[in-house]
């Protein structure tokens, strides 16, 4: 069973978002996503300073099974990337919610309220598991 922390928000595309305050958030992929992908072999992340809209691809995760685009759960500017993933993409498999985070963003305006993110319980229903 996948881990689904209750303090995070989720997308139907299996990204998670942790709003550290109303203006900044950390983003990664869920335990369910990394488990479905299998052993992650490569992570492509955007450059710091890039601004992206909700739903736009911000990177790619490649595994032994497939390549998968990563989508922005909210609009914002990339303020930090997890450079450790460039040399150690397996961190996403080992610790998707801590060491395997992917990007940090400065959230655009009030987009977090309108981002239609799911709670852990709602996401759990999507992946067919109980949290």
How does this structure look, described?
It is a single chain. This protein has 131 residues and is of the alpha+beta class. It has 4 helices and 9 strands, in the order E-E-E-H-E-E-E-E-E-H-H-E-H. The longest helix has 8 residues, at 120-127. The N and C termini lie close together (9 Å).
Give a short account of the largest sheet.
Answer: 6 strands, antiparallel
Summarize the amount of helix as a percent range.
10-25%
CATH class bucket: Mainly Beta
Structural class by sheet pairing and helices:
alpha+beta
Q: How many separate domains?
A: 1
Oligomer type: single chain
Number of helices: 4
User: Are there runs of 5+ residues with pLDDT below 50, and where?
Assistant: none
Can you say what the CATH homologous superfamily is?
RNA polymerase II/Efflux pump adaptor protein, barrel-sandwich hybrid domain
CATH hierarchy: architecture: Beta Barrel
Q: What is the end-to-end distance?
A: 9 Å
Shape: globular
What is the compact description of this entry?
The chain is an alpha+beta fold and 131 residues long.
């Amino acid at each position: 069973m996948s881990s689904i922390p209750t303090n995070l928000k989720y997308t139907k595309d299996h990204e998670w978002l942790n709003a550290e305050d109303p203006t900044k958030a950390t983003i990664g992929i869920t335990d369910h996503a990394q488990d479905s992908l299998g052993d992650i072999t490569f992570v492509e992340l955007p450059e710091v300073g890039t601004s992206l809209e909700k739903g736009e691809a911000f990177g790619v995760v490649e595994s032994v099974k497939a390549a998968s685009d990563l989508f922005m759960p909210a609009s914002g500017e990339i303020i930090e990337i997890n450079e450790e993933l460039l040399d150690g993409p397996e961190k996403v498999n080992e610790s998707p919610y801590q060491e395997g985070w992917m990007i940090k963003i400065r959230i655009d305006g009030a987009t977090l309220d309108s981002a239609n993110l799911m709670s852990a319980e709602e996401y759990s229903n999507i992946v067919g598991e109980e949290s």
